[in-house]
Specification:
This protein is mainly α. The chain has helices at about 1-25, 35-65, 75-85, 100-135, 150-160.
Length: about 160
């Protein structure tokens, strides 16, 4: 259980770094108004989150090495990655004594992937909104990418008469 908490702290640090970096870039207007700068910033965020996931897999691998389940770090890392991503190949199996560590590794991976997904959605949503508002300020009438991002005025303009 302690290892799961440690790995989630690692994911929190990676997610926090990604979100803080994005906020810093938005405050300096380095991202937000242009599609390509937003795409590049999102790609950097994905790399940061991936590094966080790889670090968590490495933490589990070190635990597996420490308890003597694997002779090499490569085997421990591979086994951890298979569990963490819930692939479950079953080609390498831990001893009965530590069998339940595999599902804990999988639970921590599932939670971390969900957390990463939430971070990605939050960042991309924010970038789309900032870009949309910038286009409106420039006097353009951008087509909203979806009703979710449409302004109240756009929603009312697109509504059919008598449908309210």
């Amino acid at each position: 259980m302690t290892v799961t908490l440690i790995t989630l702290v690692v994911q929190g640090a990676a997610g926090g770094l990604g979100m803080t970096s994005m906020s810093w870039l938005l405050a300096r207007r380095a991202v937000g108004t242009h599609v390509w700068s937003n795409a590049l910033a999102t790609l950097v965020l994905l790399v940061v989150l991936l590094i966080g996931h790889l670090a968590q897999i490495a933490v589990w691998a070190m635990v597996f090495m420490t308890i003597g389940e694997f002779a090499t770090f490569a085997d421990a890392f591979y086994h951890s990655a298979v569990n963490y991503t819930t692939l479950g190949y079953g080609d390498i199996v831990m001893s009965r004594r530590f069998h339940l560590l595999g599902p804990l590794d999988a639970v921590s991976g599932t939670l971390a992937f969900g957390w990463s997904t939430a971070i990605i959605v939050a960042v991309v949503t924010r970038l789309v909104r900032v870009r949309h508002r910038a286009e409106v300020r420039r006097g353009g009438r951008p087509q909203s990418p979806s009703p979710f991002f449409a302004t109240r005025r756009e929603k009312n303009a697109n509504a059919m008469p008598g449908s309210e």
